[in-house]
Design brief:
six-stranded mixed β-sheet; about 350 residues; alpha/beta
């Protein structure tokens, strides 16, 4: 089940609802991309001598689980602060490393306040520490770092609930890279544990499968459905439902050891000969489908139901019920596959 298309889709569904990325954000030319290249040697994040080397958020795969996301430099002419906030919001990332290599500027503070207001977790990195020197040679490296931490504490007073110190790094000399790498590894491990918990939970599986059931509805109830019902050939509907759930015929047989079909369902329903079915009007039929597919509204599809009535209620209702039963069968097959699947992130 490792490479089953349904399993791949479910992994993505779970990952999108579970923290799986850490953002690198901060000043232009602070060395965000260079740090990522140090942490992930195969990433080959783009770096340049000018200050706007990264103009869009770039994602790089982290081993085993997750991604590191390289954001553009804060305060460039290409991207306004308002645009930058939209990029952050769209990313839905909860953890950020704010990278600086000089004094905290007003633009930095505006963005840090925004991140804090949005409830993001922020860690601060002072990169290019190898260039942090006192031109008068009167202060030691330790004193310069202490001064930077004091500056950070003063600037963030009232912005963050707890005091933070810089993690000092140098992508050039490699200083601090091991500590940064270990911190990120621990964060990714915690994210992966949460991903595994969500992946294996019955609630997440049910949420995904209900999402698939609801999403198949517009694919079935199209104007072409009237012609399908008039010919009583449901093969194309079965193929559409199986394809939507990303299950194959072999998957169906492995689960049931026989071949479910809409036609069989329709025959069984018609053999019941329920007079209630013949008495149902369009409103009741719509309500039945809405309930079966857990839909809030089906107004765009009501024209299809009107068309079905032209084909005759006695023919339409068993077919709709048969489609619902077949859809639920495919949902059961999908659940069977997910229960046996491996939760590898990729």
């Amino acid at each position: 089940m490792k490479n089953h298309p349904l399993v791949k889709a479910y992994r993505k569904f779970v990952a999108n609802r579970t923290p799986h990325a850490i953002g690198f954000i901060g000043q232009p030319d602070a060395g965000k991309s260079s740090l990522i290249n140090q942490l992930l040697p195969k990433a080959k994040a783009y770096t340049g001598v000018h200050t706007d080397a990264t103009l869009t958020a770039q994602s790089y795969i982290y081993p085993e689980y997750g991604e590191l996301v390289d954001f553009p430099g804060v305060g460039t002419e290409e991207i306004t602060l308002a645009q930058y906030k939209k990029i952050i919001k769209a990313s839905d990332i909860q953890q950020f490393y704010y990278i600086l290599s000089s004094k905290i500027r007003e633009t930095d503070m505006d963005l840090i306040k925004y991140l804090a207001k949005e409830g993001k977790e922020i860690h601060f990195v002072y990169n290019k520490v190898d260039a942090l020197i006192d031109v008068n040679r009167t202060e030691s490296s330790e004193l310069l770092r202490h001064t930077k931490n004091t500056e950070l504490k003063v600037m963030l007073r009232g912005v963050l609930n707890e005091h933070q110190d810089y993690l000092f790094t140098s992508a050039l000399s490699g200083e601090g890279i091991e500590g940064l790498s270990e911190q990120i590894r621990q964060q990714m491990t915690m994210m992966y544990d949460e991903y595994l918990k969500h992946y294996q939970s019955e609630e997440m599986k049910e949420s995904y499968l209900n999402y698939k059931v609801n999403a198949v509805f517009p694919k079935l109830f199209t104007p072409a459905l009237k012609e399908v019902l008039s010919h009583q050939n449901y093969t194309i509907l079965e193929r559409t439902i199986r394809s939507h759930f990303r299950v194959e015929a072999d998957d169906v047989y492995d689960r049931f050891h026989h071949w479910p079909s809409i036609e069989k369902n329709v025959r069984e329903i018609e053999e019941q000969g329920s007079s209630l079915m013949k008495m149902m009007d369009m409103t009741k039929m719509i309500q039945m489908v809405r309930s079966a597919f857990k839909l809030k509204s089906i107004n765009p599809i009501q024209a299809v139901f009107s068309s079905l009535f032209e084909a005759g209620m006695a023919q339409a209702l068993p077919a709709v019920q048969g489609m619902i039963h077949y859809t639920n069968d495919m949902k059961a097959v999908a659940k069977y596959i997910l229960d046996q699947s491996t939760p590898l992130y990729r």
